[in-house]
Specification:
- The chain has one domain.
- The longest helix is centred in the middle third of the chain and has 28 residues.
- With 94 residues, the chain is an all-alpha fold.
- It is flat, with a radius of gyration of 17 Å.
- The structure holds magnesium ion.
- The site of magnesium ion (MG) has 4 residues, from helix 2 and helix 3.
Amino acid sequence: MIADRYGYEPQSRQCIKEMAELTQAINKYWRKRNFGGSDRQIAEAEDAVLDEMADTQIMLWQLKYLLGFGNGPLEKRINEKLDRQVNRIKGAEG
Ligand SMILES: [Mg+2]
């Protein structure tokens, strides 16, 4: 409903914005963890990551819908990538 209301162009821009916010939140969380953030600052930064992950996931679902990527093709692509990475790890260990 939301995706249909706004359409691809605005939602693709919004997706880019949310991904940038997620990048920033992950970086801030990393800085707080690695450069002496207080427990409270770390907890807040972690919560910001959760928030931006939710925003980004919502936008990815909308783009998936607006671009007509069904569950089949996307899940197939995801599984191929996961299989390849697992095989790389197994190869490196073997
Ligand atoms: Mg956001």
